[in-house]
Amino acid sequence: MTRLGSFTVYDSFDCTFECLRNASCLSVNMAASKGANGHFWCELLSSDKYRNSTEYEGNKSSHHFSIKVRNISQ
Fold this sequence. Notes:
globular; 4-stranded antiparallel β-sheet; 1 helix; single chain; mainly beta
């Protein structure tokens, strides 16, 4: 998965909003616990564990959140 950027955030909402601001972002990895500075780290990703399951490696130090994309049929 291609990392689009990394940020420090206050909570999961901040991390999600960073992703929503980037048109290429489809998911995020966010720290499972706060760092010494009281913030979480947040990585923006151009794919997600459902589209690229072979590249996904779970771990206990972070959580993976996907942006739900709705298909619009005409």
